[in-house]
Structures are given as structure tokens and as C-alpha cells.
Amino acid sequence: MSSKKSAPGSANIAQNRQATHEYFIEERLEAGLVLEGWEVKSLRAGKAQLKESFVMLKNGEAWLFGAHFSPLPSASTHVQPDPTRSRKLLLHAEELSRLIGQVERKGYTLVPLSLYWKQGRAKLEIGLARGKKQHDKRAAEKERDWEREKQRVMRRG
Q: Which fold has domain 12-132?
């Protein structure tokens, strides 16, 4: 349940809801995607999944791996779609150099958080994240349960 389909016409395409459970998100960035035509059509239909995807820095460039864009049956016949191909992310040079430094030296990781439309272009929100330990996950769950219980009591009382 880590990717969520959006209603047709809304800006949100897919979310990686599992990322906030697995990581502390320190910083959020917006990146463009290099896509093929059939991928854009799939995104417009809401056929994207970020569940097991990750961002990797290679040769001074950011790449999205493991994201699944399901091809539409009406896609072009002369194109062989690869649903899980690696996709290049478009970031400014300063952002890339800063991210490379933080990922390599400080032990952070880059996690895709959500995929959405902005002014007719597909954008990916990536998070600079630090992994949670098991006790951190338990504490976060306990905090979430307490907030929910507090809201329940406030509504009744």
C-alpha cells in the first residue's frame, strides 16, 4: 500500500507512503524526469508505482531505479516499453554536488517520495533521508497512536 493512485485530473500521480515509515526525511527536493512518450501517457492514466524505487547518484547524475510505469495497451506498437527502466532525474548542478557530498560523506540516502504534475510536466519529489532503526519506528507508531487517541477524546469530550 505504498503507492496511491490519484483521481483523474489531480496533480498527484503516485506516493511512496512507506518512505516516511522507513526513513527520517531531512530535506525535500523537486526533480524533473526524462521520460519517453509512452511513459507520459501511463502517468496521465495514473499507472505508476514508487513502492520499491530508489534514487542513485552515478557519474555526477541522479537516476531513478525500480519505479514501475505500466505501459498502456494502446501504446505504440513499434516501441518496446520497459516498465522498470532507469530514468534520469533533472537537477541543478549545485543541488547535485550538494547531494553527492551529503550522500557520500554523511551517510544519507535519496528516496523518491511522490510523483506529480506541475505546469504540465512530471516532477518527482525526492527526500534526503536517514534510515530509521526498529526502536525509532516503534516510537513513531506509538506517537501516531497517541495523537489519534487524543483526537478521539477531544471529539467526544
A: Small Protein B; Chain: A; (2.40.280)
- Residues of 47-82 as b/e, b for ≥16 C-beta within 10 angstroms? bbbbbebbbebeeeebbbeebbbebeeebeeeeebe
Model pLDDT for residues 2-15, shown as the tens digit of each residue: 455 544 445 888 88
Q: In sequence order, what are the beta bridge partners of 138?
A: none
* pLDDT tens, residue by residue, 67-77: 888 888 876 67
Domain regions of the chain by residue span: 12-132
Write down the pTM of the prediction.
0.75
